[in-house]
Task: inverse folding
C-alpha cells in the first residue's frame, strides 16, 4: 500500500471521504482550516456536500438535520468554535443520532492563541453541552492514527447511535507525515429502524426528537441511553502501553503529548530509570482497567499534558488513589519538551542522573 505525505488536517479530511462521509457543515477557524478547505475542493467532485455555514451554531444544527436521515456527516472546528457548537451537540446526543465532530484544539481560554493545546479535555469528556450524556472521545497521536480513527469514529457512532469526537490539536493538524489509507469495508449499519429518510409510504413515520414533555418519559430515555454507555465502557476502551511491564514510574499522556512523553521514557531508560508510558486512545470511555494493569508494578505516576492538569483527575480516579500521581504540563500553546519530562522523571526517581 502506497504511502503519501500529507498534513494532518488534510489526511483527516481525505479519510472522512473514504469512510463514506457525504456531508460536511462547518465554519473556518485556525488551526483546522485546511480540513475545511480540502473538503470544499473534494466533496463536490466525489458525490458529497460541502457547506460553509454562516456560523458555528448554524453548522452544528445542519449536522443534526443531515444526521437524522442516517447520512454519514461531520463537522470540524477549533476550541472556541466547539464551544459555540455545544448546545447543538447536546441536541444531537439527545436525538440519538450519530455524527463525527472534530476538534483541532488551540490555546485558551477565550480567543487564546492559535498554537496547539490540550485545554479542551474537560470540555470534551465532562461538559460538552447541557444534560446527562456522553460522547465517545478518540485521541490520536499521529497523522496515521488520525486516518485510522476516522473510520472507527463513524462506525462507533452508528453502532451506538451517538456523536463521536476526534480530539486532535494544532500540532497534529499542521504536521506532515507519511500515511497510507487502508481499504474501507462498507458500513453494515442498518438505519432503517430510526432514520427519518422518507417512508415511501411503506412504513410508519420516524421522528428524530430530543423533547420529552413528561419528566418520566425523559428519565426513561436517559436511563436507556446510560445502559448503552455502560456497554461502551465495558467493550470500547482503548489504550497503548509502552515498557510498562517492569516500570517503577508510569507516564500517562494522550494525543501529541504522548510522543514527547515516549521520547522522555526512552531517555529515562537509557539512564537506568524504569519508566513506562500509558496512552489512553479513548478519553471517554477512559481505559480504567487498562491503566490499572499497566500500573501493577509501578510506584508512582506522572501525568503529562498540554494544559494545567485536566486528565490527572481521571488518572487518580481510575487508580482509586492507590498510587501517588504527579503532574507536569505546559499551557497556552507551549509544547512540553522531552528534556522537561525527563527532568520530572529524574525527580520522581530520586534525582538519578
Result:
Amino acid at each position: 500500500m502506497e504511502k503519501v505525505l500529507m498534513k494532518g488536517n488534510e489526511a483527516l479530511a481525505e479519510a472522512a471521504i473514504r469512510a463514506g462521509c457525504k456531508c460536511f457543515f462547518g465554519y473556518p477557524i485556525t488551526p483546522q482550516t485546511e480540513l475545511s478547505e480540502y473538503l470544499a475542493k473534494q466533496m463536490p467532485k466525489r458525490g458529497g456536500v460541502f457547506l460553509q455555514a454562516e456560523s458555528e451554531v448554524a453548522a452544528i444544527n445542519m449536522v443534526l438535520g443531515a444526521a437524522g436521515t442516517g447520512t454519514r456527516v461531520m463537522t470540524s472546528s477549533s476550541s472556541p468554535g466547539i464551544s459555540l457548537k455545544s448546545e447543538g451537540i447536546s441536541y444531537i446526543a439527545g436525538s440519538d443520532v450519530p455524527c463525527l465532530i472534530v476538534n483541532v484544539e488551540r490555546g485558551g481560554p477565550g480567543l487564546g492563541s492559535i498554537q496547539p493545546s490540550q485545554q479542551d479535555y474537560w470540555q470534551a469528556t465532562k461538559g460538552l453541552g447541557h444534560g446527562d450524556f456522553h460522547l465517545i472521545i478518540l485521541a490520536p497521536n499521529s497523522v496515521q492514527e488520525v486516518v485510522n480513527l476516522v473510520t472507527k469514529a463513524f462506525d462507533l457512532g452508528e453502532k451506538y447511535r451517538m456523536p463521536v469526537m476526534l480530539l486532535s490539536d494544532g500540532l497534529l493538524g499542521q504536521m506532515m507525515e507519511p500515511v497510507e489509507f487502508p481499504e474501507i469495508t462498507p458500513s453494515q449499519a442498518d438505519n432503517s429502524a430510526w432514520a427519518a429518510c422518507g417512508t415511501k409510504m411503506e412504513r410508519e413515520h420516524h421522528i428524530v426528537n430530543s423533547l420529552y414533555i413528561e419528566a418520566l418519559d425523559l428519565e426513561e430515555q436517559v436511563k436507556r441511553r446510560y445502559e448503552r454507555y455502560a456497554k461502551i465502557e465495558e467493550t470500547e476502551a482503548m489504550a497503548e502501553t509502552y515498557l510498562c511491564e517492569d516500570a517503577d514510574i508510569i507516564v500517562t499522556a494522550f494525543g501529541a503529548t504522548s510522543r514527547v512523553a515516549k521520547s522522555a521514557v526512552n531517555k529515562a531508560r537509557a539512564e537506568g530509570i524504569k519508566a513506562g508510558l500509558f496512552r489512553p486512545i479513548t478519553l471517554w470511555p477512559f481505559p480504567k482497567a487498562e491503566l490499572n494493569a499497566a500500573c501493577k508494578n509501578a510506584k508512582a505516576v506522572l501525568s503529562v499534558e498540554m494544559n494545567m492538569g485536566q486528565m490527572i483527575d481521571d488518572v487518580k480516579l481510575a487508580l482509586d488513589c492507590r498510587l501517588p500521581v504527579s503532574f507536569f504540563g505546559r499551557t497556552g500553546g507551549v509544547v512540553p519538551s522531552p528534556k522537561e519530562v525527563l527532568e520530572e522523571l529524574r525527580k520522581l526517581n530520586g534525582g538519578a542522573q
User: Anything to note?
Assistant: The chain has two domains: 4-235, 240-348. Residues 21 and 72 are 5 Å apart (CA to CA).
